[in-house]
Amino acid sequence: MSDKTVNVALPKGRLGDKVYEMFKAAGYPCEALENPGRKLTFENPDVGIKYFWVKPSDVAIYVEKGAADIGVAGKDILKEYSPDVYELLDVGLGKCRMCVAAPSDFRDDYRKTLRVATKFPHVAKEHYSRIGRDIEIIKLNGSIELAPILGLSDVIVDIVETGATLRQNGLIVFDALFDISARLIANKSGYRFKSRRIDMIKENLQKVKENCDD
Ligand code: PRP
Questions:
Q1: What is the pLDDT of residues 160-207, one digit of tens each?
Q2: Which of 55, 110, 204, 210 is deepest in the core (most CB within 10 A)?
Q3: The pTM is what?
Q4: Ligand 1, closest atom to CA 163?
Q5: Which of 158, 162, 166, 180 to mutate to test the pocket of ligand 1 (most atoms within 8 A of CB)?
Q6: Which residues pair with 176 in a beta bridge?
């Protein structure tokens, strides 16, 4: 692997597939990645790129620690973990919102500690400390919408994309905290050593994004 090979952490799953299509359209295809089997690393030496599939919530840590030079992570993950990385580009994929949601008959009782189920404890704590509301965090790893249905929490702080999961589980949005989209991020020292290559990738991705917007 040449030292100018750029190592890219891609978020495994739906978002990652779209991100890879964007890199491919930007001039960084990788045939091996298109028939992955159980493999997790894929290189195309012709274009000097090596991809890794990682769990979406782990992209930021791979990039922060320098195991990957660049990666694509949702703004939700960046807000939750505040990794020490450069944020180079909003790639415009994975658009959704961070919301507070609850059953439609929910009324906040300020005499009680509010029980908040979430995958994003820092985001939730920051929001409620800003508005001075006393909360208890219930940290879950998925299917967050179940928590208020089963009485495990009063509300949830979670991602809403189409709103289908909320609707189908009888929940509604009470507050929208911020918009989310996927961002190209870079390791700080990796960026110093490979800035020309990384800037080129960023510019090529930007062009693909603009063509998609047209
Ligand atoms: C996310 C999120 C919501 C759902 C929102 O879950 O936590 O549950 O997507 O999408 P929608 O508004 O389009 O319905 P994910 O699919 O990542 O699964 P998880 O519950 O295992 O976290």
A1: 999 999 999 999 999 999 999 999 999 999 999 999 999 999 999 999
A2: 204
A3: 0.92
A4: 12
A5: 158
A6: 99
